[in-house]
Amino acid sequence: MTPNPQSGSLFVVSAPSGAGKTSLVRALLGEQPNLRLSVSCTTRPARPGEIDGVDYEFVDHAEFVRRRDAGDFLEWAQVHHNLYGTSRAWIDARIASGEDVILEIDWQGAMQVRRQFPEAVLVFIVPPSIDELRRRLEARGQDSPAVIEQRVQAARSELAEAHRFEYVIINQEFAGALRQLAAIVEASRCRFAQQRTRHPGLFDGLGIDRTRPLPE
Q: What secondary structure letter does DSSP report for 56?
């Protein structure tokens, strides 16, 4: 259930592997002091240097399943035998307090979030072409040719889901893509629901009926 009042915004950023999503989100977080990256819950063990409650909330499998079955997650998925989920309570608390939160998840997770949080702003990051995506994956030097081909084929499938998102950013040039992502965040902060909650003295008591259709 969406928190009320809703003074913050929830941003969901998805992309095929290699499109530059993580780099763009990290750069955006460095520019936006009131934007927080969501802390996901996971059953995988903590890696060296990771801090519980900062990088992830680490739980065992039984606890994750209990919380999932209780409806505690906005979205969840199984990746390489590990479970990952986004805490509904964590998101609600931050947004109700006026913080903006950004989620980095795949497109299936984004659709789960939209069903439960229709006010979320969905952004899809795409490469300028499949050939450029392949070149970037090869330049990273992290995967074998077979794995790269698997990622490229997966990207083709994911690109077919781009129409499900309100915003699509073509990451041809990093600085330009970052400007577009920042512009989406700033514009979303100007939506009426957020402005009304942040400035109640301006709008409250005016008899505004949000159920009435807008004039043609």
A: E
